[in-house]
Amino acid sequence: MDLQELSDRQEITDLLTRYTRAVDTRSYDDLAAVFTADAVLDYRASGGPIGTPAEVVPWIEQGLAGFQRTQHILGQLAITFDGPVHDQPDRAHVTAYFTNPMVVINPDGSEGLWEVGGYYHHDLVRLPDGWRSTKIVDDVQWTRGF
User: pLDDT for 23-36, tens place per residue?
Assistant: First the structure.
């Protein structure tokens, strides 16, 4: 592994952190620095849509509005790289393990905890201003509390 790959791995880790932080802090405008404008966001495993950020981010915002707080936790990242092809930018594929505890307010006013776990599968491209996701697939493996 050379210095460029180490740097790329750190930049990709930071990109996935920006994604989860934007969602958890409800800073949805910050997702523009995570995805390309024509990215494909696939949330069908969560009962959501598939489409561009402009089409899907409002669904994320609406879906999380019922929760007091969320806290994505990313685990292992499996990153593979594809080199440039015919002057196309570098590309990478990432599978990130995730757990997402979400706090709800129960009818009696107490807090409840719902959880989702699975994998985020990202296709990434290196652009002049850094790595961006061109595709995410939300691959839910389990839920608890729903």
Answer: 999 999 999 999 99
Domain 3-144: give its CATH code. 3.10.450.50
Contacts 24+ apart (CB under 8 A), 36-43: 36/125, 36/127, 36/132, 36/133, 36/134, 38/134, 39/132, 39/133, 39/134, 39/135, 39/136, 40/134, 40/135, 40/136, 41/135, 41/136, 42/135, 42/136, 42/137, 42/138, 43/138
* pTM: predicted TM-score of the whole model, two decimal places: 0.92
Model confidence pLDDT, tens digit, residues 55-103: 999 999 999 999 999 999 999 999 999 876 666 669 999 999 999 999 9
What is the Cα Rg of the chain in Å? 16
The structural domains of the chain, with segments of one domain joined by +, span: 3-144
